[in-house]
Structures are given as C-alpha cells and as structure tokens.
Amino acid sequence: MPDGALAKGLEQLAAMKDHVLQLDSALSQLAKTSGLSAAELKNITEEAFRMGDAAGESGAQVLSCIASAHRAGYDIRQSMALAEEALKMSSLSFGMDDAADAVSRLNTILDSFGESADFASSINDGLAAVAGSGPADFDTLAQGMAALSESASCAGLSFEETLGLLSGAYAVLKDMDQVAGGEPAIFSMLKESYGSAGDVYGILDELSGVWNTLDAPARETFAISNAGDAQKEVFAALMDNWAGVESAVSSAQDSVGAADQASALCLDSLSAKTAVFQNKVAQLSAALMDSGILRFFLDL
Q: Which of 6-15, 211-220, 269-278 has the highest mean pLDDT?
C-alpha cells in the first residue's frame, strides 16, 4: 500500500475513533444518572442519531443533551422530548452554540410557568412566530423570556402574554435588558395598586384605553403613578404600542408549527448537512467497533 494511502487510511481511522470516543463519553454521562440497561441505552442511542439527523446535530451531541435534561430532573421520556426541543432552539439561535444551554433556558421557562417538558414545543413555536412577525429576533426574545418568566408567572401572566409584553415594549425601546429588567417592577406595582381588580394583562389593557385619552403631560403623571419614575419609559412603551402587544400575543397563541418551519430553513445550511454526514460516519464507526473490525485496525 502506498505511504500516502496508508496515511490517509490511518487518518480516517483516527477520525472514526474520535466519533466512537465522543459517543462513549456521552453514553457514560447518561448511564451514570439514568440507571438504564445496556439494551435501553442502545435504543436511546439509535433514537439520538435519528434526532440528530432531523436537527443537523451529531448523535453524541444529542445524547449529551438528553443527559443534561435528565440531570435537571426529567425522566427519560421527558428528557428526550426536551432534548429534541433544545436542539431545535439551538438551531434557531445565533447565540447558542451548545444545546445544553438551550436545555437550561427551556428548563428555566418551564419551571417558571409550572409546565411539563411537553410544553417546550410551544415555547419554541411562540418564540419563532413572534420573532418572525415582530421587531425582536429569536435570541432576543428567548433571552428576555428567560429573564422575565418567573416574575411574569408570579403576576399571573401566561407565556403568550409575556411574549407580547416583551415584544411590544422592545419595538419602542430596542433594549431587551431595559424591558425585561423593568417590567417586573411594573407588574409588582400594578398588583399592589389594583389588587384583585383584575389580572396584570387585563389591567394593562384597561390602562391603555385611558392612555389614549391623555395629553403628553397627563401621560407622564399617569406613567409615574402606575409604574414609578424608574420604569415610566417601559410603561409608556407598552401603552404607546399596545396594539403591537396584542398582535404578538395573537401570533404566539396561533403559532403551532412555527418553529418546525423556521428550523427546516436552517437545516438547508452547509453546517447542518455536514453534521448529518458526520452522524453517518459516527454510526458506521460504532457499528464497526461493535463488530471488532475497527478495534482490530486501531490495535494494528
């Protein structure tokens, strides 16, 4: 065999070995926390490759994502469902390279609203739909939702209403840190001022009707009385763009399938196709390792 061909073959074997080691590491993480049998781990590995092909990620990455979800307290079925949505979230995000980060973000939102892992698909759909029709991109909305979800839930707001309030204020202020940082204080002040007179979203809806009847000086006083001096700009942004808030809420409520549609476009990318190819190599590597053929050549 020519030296060049031999070197090339050894290089390919080394790459295959790397794939196997990555799989082994991911499986070890899952085995330590799940208590699954070898047969069950094999079935999950096969499902991980399927999920990886669909999401443009490697099987090892999917397994690592499942392990992250399981460590967060979900059972294996829920962990696989959450991992699938985390992969989708990371594919739609420009700022999240690691699906484990997406697991953490989804878990924060799910915990805040008291939802099960099955609701993760609604989170992705809502974010994708509002991002597709509004001023804030997917990452910006996801960041704001993770920061605001606990306060919003405590104020009795739904996930969709929270998305609307984030998008509506951001359209005016163009600063998600200001919006997500200021709205909790507004929620708290409204609850304190109006008590059981209505839910926070309903209160804001009624206040928007009053806002439209006021002149500029009166609006300043109205904003301070309802939101405090520190958050009067955020409150005014919500009032000025209440139609945008309602539109975003409507988009979130009618968003089934939005994330899948957006993700399908991402899967046409070269990086996603490369990941699918690497998945095939990893599957072949694992099969060869199981058969002993690859181990023989690696030893040689």
A: 211-220
d(CA 145, CA 151): 10
Helix axes 59-71, 3-34, angle to 10 degrees: 20
Which DSSP category does 256 fall into?
T
**For the whole model, what pTM was predicted?**
0.82
d(CA 125, CA 122): 5
Contact, 163 vs 245, CB < 8 A? no
Nearest to 201 by CA among 268, 135, 146, 252: 252
With beta carbons less than 8 A apart as the criterion, state whether 88 and 55 touch. yes
Contact present, 100 and 143 (Cβ < 8 Å): no
CA atoms within 13 A on the CB side of 58: 19
Amino acid at 177: D
Q: For position 270, what pLDDT does the model report?
A: 42
Is the Cβ–Cβ distance between 66 and 29 less than 8 Å?
A: no
- Please choose, from the candidates 287, 263, 298, the residue with its C-alpha nearest in 3D space to the C-alpha of residue 131: 263
How far apart (Å, rounded) are the C-alpha atoms in residues 105 and 193?
A: 32
Per the listing, tokens 């046409």 go with: 268
Structure tokens at 265: 């476009």
Mapped onto helix, strand or coil, the DSSP state of residue 259 is helix
Cα(252)–Cα(264) distance, integer angstroms: 19
| Rounded Cα gap, residues 161 and 141, in angstroms | 13
pLDDT digits 0-9 by tens, 169-224: 999 999 999 999 999 999 999 999 998 666 999 999 999 999 999 999 999 999 99
- pLDDT tens, residue by residue, 68-121: 899 899 999 999 999 999 999 998 998 887 788 999 999 999 999 999 999 999
Measured between alpha carbons, how far is 287 from 278 in angstroms, rounded to an integer? 14
CA distance 77 to 62: 14
